[in-house]
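Appendix B: complex inputs.
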Amino acid sequence: MKFTLGWLKEHLDTKIQDTGLIEKLTDIGLEVESFENLNSDLDNFIVAKIINAEQHPNADRLRVCDVDIGQENNVKVVCGAPNAKKDLLTVYAGPGSIIPKNNMKLAISKIRGVTSYGMLCSESELNLSDESEGITELKTTKYSDKIGENFFKNKSEKVVDLSITPNRPDCLGVRGIARDLAAAGAGKLKNISNKNIKKNGSQKIKVSIKKEENQGCTVFGSCLITGVTNKESPKWLKEKIISLGQKPISAIVDITNYVMLDLNRPLHAYDADKIDREIIVRNSKKGETFKALDNKEYKLGDDMCVISDKSGVLGLGGVIGGTRSGTEINTKNILLESAYFIPRSIRKTSKLLNIDTDAKFRFERGIDPRSIELGLSKAAELISEICGGKISNFDIQKTDKYEKKKIKFKVSLFEKITGFKINDNEIVKILTELGFEVSKKKLELDLKIPTWRPDIIQPIDIVEEIVRIKGYNNIETLEPEKTKINDTLNKQQKLFHFLQRSVASKGYFETVTWSFTDSKINNLFKENLEEIKIVNPISSDLDVLRNSIFTNLTFYLKKNLDRGFKDISLFEIGPIFKNSKPGEQLTVIGAIKSGKVSRLNWNEKERPVDVFDVKKDAIQTLVEAGYDKKRFFIRDNSPSYYHPGKAGSVYLDKDDIEPVAYFGDIHPNIVKKLDIKTEGLVGFEIYLDHLKENKIKLKDQKPNFEYSDYQKSERDFAFIVDKNFKAQDIIEIISSIDPNLIRSIKIFDIYEGDNIPDGKKSIALNVTIQSSEKTLEESDLEKINKLIISTVETKSGAKIRS
Amino acid sequence: MSDIKKIKDEYLNKLDSNLNIESLNKIKTELFGKNGQISNSFKTLVSLPNDERKKFASDLNSIKDELQKKINSKLKEIEIKEINSKLENEKVDVTLPEREINQGKIHPVSQVIDEISSIFSEIGFSVEEGPDIENENYNFTALNTPDNHPARDMHDTFYLDNKKELLLRTHTSPVQIRTMLNGKPPFKIIAPGRTYRSDSDQTHSPMFHQVEGLHIDKDINMGHLKGCLNYFIKSFFEVKKIKMRFRPSHFPFTEPSAEVDIGYEMKDGKIVIGEGDKWLEILGCGMVHPNVLKNVKVNPDKYQGYAFGIGIDRLGMLKYGINDLRAFFETDYRWLNHFGFDPLDVPSNYRGLSR
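Resulting structure:
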């Protein structure tokens, strides 16, 4: 909402300085977005005097003028106007100015060999009139002492831009703002001068509001003004319109706009001669069309509120008028409309048709339904003043009386909510000045709500009114009380934070990427999850919600590779989506690693990252989070976006159905499809929702501390097994032989090739044997040795390598 | 006697010269070997008369001890020398780079969320979460923002169906609704998380983070709201004093509503929070609207309290001098490295929020 302080003061009698008013506005909830010269372009137009005008040496029709612009030196301007004569007072525009008529920016230029510094403007160029024959001629009486001053006087007046919250339609008019300021002690609200305008005869065009379900109009007021001469607006009105950054059109249109901005009372003027017999306010029928003032043809649906005549739709009530009945410069007779439209209906219609107008914006928020006549009076008066014409009596059709709503307000509620007290008289004063009718009972106030405040419905709204006007700075700052109701984090949240830092501690950079992604990439990772399309995506390559963290990780990994990085470790912890229902999401860690380990290292051999790098990180992260590694079980199944032979899944327990993690090489086809150029690309994922909550705390899970000081022995074995035989199984076989003796098993070599039959491999293990009861004799060791060999051979079909 | 004294003197002399391990062993043999001079002298003992034997034996033993001691000390000396010369050859250039360690980083948003949780934990709040996909009821209607309410236009919403029933939550406020529907008052929660609006430019990003706060009890008023936010902002920016301004505003789900500005000044092109005469808007808040309480079956005549919503990314930008919001989500390795935090740097109240 834009306005000038001068305009504000037409409604507010105040002695407060501008900066004080600006502060006050913010203090009472009318946030000042800016307070500046809105259109500084117009500051470049200066009252000037032609000191001398000579014939241009190279052009008959041009003159070279010496122009006094109120500065030390005169400027030279080349001018083609026949009336550019010595001593003429006119309007000068310097280089850099933008000419209002054609938005042309002036530059210093040579015209037929003579340099011209700026331009002398015609009225037409300044949008003041259609006069384009010569340059503007200013009256000596008025302007002779104004040389060098801005021509557009109000231009130097600063424009206030307020950001009005949707609950305050009343402040979409200057008067509403003045009323709020007055209530807050910033002055006195002036009365609206009630000039008795002369009204003659009845309004001859019949108006009816059709009784229909969902009728969007409840009041339709109108009057006829006959015999007008539409013209350009007078300067004061033009300047008002221009000061708000709008374009003056014609007196009639400008006046309706002015009344709207002044009182927040939208009006519409029809060319009465274009109305076919009568006005019918009714619901539209599907398929009806009309051409609106924005020059677009709209096809209407059912039940939109239209203003129509016998020939069809004239306009969408409260949203936009139509071209068929629009006023023009030669309009002679006007029908002026001042109506009330129901916000819900306005909102529905404008949403469906995607129309946004000033009127719509206001009606949607709620116009004062009792401002019908005020609007008609003010506009009719101005029109007859400026354009002449006779005003008819007002015709008011209404289906609702809009009595003021009543509320009982318990005064104690104020302190209960705000924590501080103010006396009842002050409350009454504030509310009265805001326009409430207050009658004081013992502990209660009976209030009648002003009809321009549709936002006030219940007692809490009254609390806000009082505290807002009284000032939020009166609210005390109380020490926070520290009572805790629940633990700060639940177990799952603790796990989240722990895992996040655990993964980062393994050399991964945490990233945060969009929850949405490119469906083309998502398809590579979505497996059997549902694709979730966004109806209105921000761009076509962010069109679905991600089914996997890898979609964005691979995308950004590639971007970083393109930046010249090679060995990259990235992870993200966040949601992936199973379908579009709330809550059908999983929290997942996705981590990805590219390039080499020990690249360009002086003492270690470099190698591409591989599946065992990410397996280590995944397993260690789980171990750090408190899960028992001894129970982990690895399977070689994995989602299809992993390399089928170089990936696996981790189960917390052999019997678990769902894996808690996947790890492995990313499938080479995907690497190729995404055009990722790197020596190795591996990744892992941990599914937080699949991690079983430990029912008992970690501290209570630890077994008793037991240890053995008896001598340890180590024995090495090498078994020849089928190539596909899994190391995990052989370890499981050996460790289950005698858990009391076999303390640890290490695989120290895997070998295929010479001396090993085709389709076989050799697994070499080191087994540590120790008893907790005695030092083992050679014979005991021999026994367990034999047992290990025989058990492995029978259970796995392996052969001990001799 | 004179013989053995001569031997002693001769060998002590020899042992004083510069010897290596071989020559020392040779001397040992010459003295104590099978036919060594000292060994042989002991053999002569038996042939001596009784009265001389005792004295000779005693002299011989002390000479033997003296020589042996000398040999041992010489041996140690040689060993040390040899180790030293060996170590001299083993010297490496310790200025060569150490073995690689890969330094990981925590994203600023995560760090700031941990900081926020730590601060609110101290004054009794617990953390709640809600889904990113919401229905329009929890995101709007239950929050006193019915379909025909123009405030809906202030949120550019991503929809997941044409009926506009499923959407990406535009704020963390639906967590209020979920929390209150699933529990009984009092409520004292914060809810950090991802939020979405279909808006994208220099200062807007289609995804961003908010933290919601909610405190409902029998007599929580606007003074408590002010106190809580004052405490939070001071703690978060780690300053002793803060200038804070409550401005009336409007949110459908709170009444009265306020926006909160904090004072700042520019020093060397950087924002300094706390003093100064400029204002920066950082959050929205208010007393939970009675309609919202009714919607979640909490009696507004018995319970009341406040709610607030803060932009997490923006807080992080202010605290850590990050200029561009969009960079948070662009995964530039250089940016993550520059603005990221060490994973061991866990914000906590007793160790301080930031190092």
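Chain A touches chain B through 96 residues (CB under 8 Å).
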